[in-house]
């Protein structure tokens, strides 16, 4: 008998992009964000700037994010925050990064602090030629959030920062303290991070909570994590993979999904890109808004006491 029907064909693969964006984004153009940031000034006269502290695993893109923000705001490629590619932390010194406006000596009223990355162990790994630092102490991050760490302090994974250090600030003001804590995690490795690193990030988050500091997270390297996003950055909010990575990060750290922003830092580009910058600006505006709320609350609380 003639066989009319063959085996059932396999189901087609599930599309990697959704038909509609899973997050509704503000209907603002890049120039709208730029003007907002150019005009921004803290409401309180005694607050000089919003201080944004970046933390997270090594090689997540903390320094690159600062450079990407500066590139976006200054309209040219910059590299103020030294960045590197590798598994160990490149940033060792506590430093405040300011971003210059159009006129020399005029700066945006928000600053960044980029600190040594969190790693699985604290201390040094030795080899035949040299040693490599492998992570900051969580307690040092807590001291930085409280405003006790002065610019220029060099983090030492073998020795915790104490009040006896010459870089200890014994009377921090509202301008020294962290106003927004931002966790920076690579979108290509968020599901591969060790339990120990995740625990350290949660510990930092709990310390920020106790200080009343608002928290956010940015998911970097989304182009490396998703081929569709690499081809077209505008489909980021249609990517199932990016959405899944954000959900993993949210569940692991307890950061609400609406406080997590996917971004792509400038990396191999030598010219500016409108799609990169719009995602950067969207995240930056949220940081400023969160910081503004915090300093207003902080000053009112201090006065009421």
From TrEMBL:
Which stretches are transmembrane? none
Q: Which InterPro entries match?
A: P-loop_NTPase (IPR027417)
The record's Gene Ontology biological-process terms are: immune response
Q: Which SUPFAM superfamilies match?
A: P-loop containing nucleoside triphosphate hydrolases
Against CDD domains, the record matches this protein to: Ras_like_GTPase
Alphabetical list of Gene3D superfamilies matching this protein: P-loop containing nucleotide triphosphate hydrolases (3.40.50.300)
Which PANTHER family is this protein grouped with?
INTERFERON-INDUCED PROTEIN 44 (PTHR14241), INTERFERON-INDUCED PROTEIN 44-RELATED (PTHR14241:SF1)
**Name of the featured protein:** Interferon-induced protein 44-like
Specify the species: Knipowitschia caucasica
